[in-house]
Structures are given as C-alpha cells and as structure tokens.
Amino acid sequence: MSKDGVKNAAPIGIVCKGKNKLGCRLFVGTKTLKNIMETRKYVVNIIFNLINFVKSTIGNLDTEEFTDDENIAILKNAEAYIICDVTDIRKMDLIKDHVTSNGEAYIISSDVVKIVKNNPCAKALNRGVFALLECLTNYTRLDLVILGAKANIKFHMFQMAVH
Ligand SMILES: Cc1cc2nc3c(=O)[nH]c(=O)nc-3n(C[C@H](O)[C@H](O)[C@H](O)COP(=O)(O)O)c2cc1C
Q: What is the pLDDT of residue 64?
C-alpha cells in the first residue's frame, strides 16, 4: 500500500530468513519497492488464484479484490496472509545475472508481525517446484525428439535450472 492509501499487489518471491523473519529482493521501478520504502510495512498474501497472478503482474487488481481493512492491502481470497514490518532496506550491488543486466534492486528484511490462516492447509506456490516438474517433463522427451529439438529442450532445461 502506498503512503496515500492506494492498495497494490504483485507476485514477489519471498524467502524465509529465520524464525519470524522474511526477506525479498525488489527491483527498482516496481510500485512494491516504492510503497515499502514509503511505509516500511507490507503484507504477504498467499494465494492460489492464477488470474490474480496474471492481473497483478501486468497491471493491478481491482479495489474490490482487497478487503476493507484500512492501511493494509489484504486480499479477500488469500489462503493466508502475513503482516510484516520492515527492519532493513539495503541496496544490492548492481546485478548482472540471468534476470536482468545491470538491474538495480534492494534487499528488504522484515519481521513477521501477524500470521492469519484462512485455510489451515495454506501453502505458497513455489517456482522451484514447477521448474523441476518442467525439467523432468523435458527430460522424459529427450529421447523422443530429433537432434535439433533435443538441443532446444536442453536449452530450456538449462534456463529453468538457472532461474
Ligand atoms: C512468480 C513471480 C515472481 C516475481 N518475483 C519478483 C521478485 O522477487 N522481485 C521483484 O522485484 N519482482 C518480481 N516479480 C515481478 C513483479 O511481480 C512485476 O514486476 C510486477 O509488475 C511489479 O508490480 P508493481 O509495480 O505493482 O510492484 C515476479 C513476478 C512473478 C510472476
């Protein structure tokens, strides 16, 4: 949420850094980074609705998709959510990796303030799990395809492994 009270959501990779400690890496240019720098507070909404992922990546969600709670951007369809207070914002060294060349990013460290489980079995989507499944699927096809396609499949497997 911005300092002016505008609610925003985006898919972001979250890492667990210890008991009640979360972190993420945010690229300069995202509203998420700007808002977190302004308010030093955010919510991790754990959702399974892929339409929400699409909409919040290429634009923003409709205001009706957030709860009426003031000063906090909780999603109505969150399986669970985690309210966090930021403890540290640190600029990363310029990144030259597979994600972006010379991308400017900040590491956000936070304390967990509150956890709410709307679904007791809530589980966050994990990109690594999906990447592994895709790699395995490609692996099983390697011997079925012609030579040129084989190189293509190996390239895709490599791409997923480095991500
Ligand atoms: C699965 C997924 C994970 C993402 N993880 C991150 C991330 O960890 N950090 C980041 O800066 N952007 C990440 N992004 C990209 C942002 O979601 C994207 O730039 C988004 O448009 C930012 O929206 P905002 O400007 O409303 O903050 C990710 C996107 C997807 C689809």
A: 96
Report which ligand 1 atom has the smallest distance to the Cα of 127: 1
Nearest CA to ligand 1 atom 30: 11
For the ranges 23-27, 102-106, 111-115, the lowest mean pLDDT is seen at: 102-106
Q: What is the C-alpha separation between 118 and 107, in angstroms, rounded? A: 29
Nearest ligand 1 atom to the CA of 30 is 25
SS3 45: strand
Task: Determine the pLDDT at residue 97.
Answer: 61
The residue to which tokens 């409709």 are assigned: 62
CA gap 33, 159 in Å, rounded: 26
Whose C-alpha lies nearest to ligand 1, atom 21?
Answer: 57
Q: Please name each of the domains of the chain with its CATH number.
A: 14-117 (2.30.110.10), 127-162 (no CATH)
> In terms of pTM, does the model score above 0.85?
yes
For 26, list phi and psi in degrees, rounded to 5: -115, 130
Query: Looking at residues 6-31, what average pLDDT do you find?
Result: 96
Ligand 1 nearest-atom number relative to CA 32:
27
Burial of 21 (0-12, 13-18, 19+ CB in 10 A): middle
